[in-house]
Amino acid sequence: MNLRPTTLDDLGLFVALKRLFKEFGALHGTKFSLDLEEDRDLLSSQAQIIIYRIFQESLSNIAKYAQAARIAVTIKRENGTVFFHRGR
After folding, report:
1. Regarding beta strands 70-78 and 31-36, do their DSSP bridges make them parallel or antiparallel, or are they unpaired?
2. pLDDT by position in tens, the chain (length 88)
3. How many beta carbons lie within 10 A of that of residue 51, not counting itself?
């Protein structure tokens, strides 16, 4: 369900992830911070879908197993490689 939100196509990965985290936070009482460059051309459409799905699954696992009160994520691209970093 909601494997590819129209937000990804319309507004890009940053907005789609921000909405995903906001909805998750509202449902589970979790606060979050997201650090991601807002450049829509930063990643290909396929890469954006993959990253979105990774975070969907990650949030699902957090809800099931970690029950975290706070989530901080940084997504950066350097030399053609995408890095994810979780905050503390």
Report:
1. parallel
2. 466 788 888 888 888 998 999 999 999 998 888 887 766 566 788 888 888 999 999 999 999 998 788 888 888 878 878 788 776 5
3. 19
Query: Left, alpha or beta for 79 (phi > 0: left; psi -120 to 50: alpha)?
Result: left
Sign of the CA dihedral running 81, 86, 87, 88: negative
Residue 65 in domain:
yes
- Alpha carbons 37 and 79: distance in angstroms, whole number: 15
What is this structure's pTM? 0.81
User: Can you give the CATH number for the domain in which 49 is found?
Assistant: 3.30.565.10
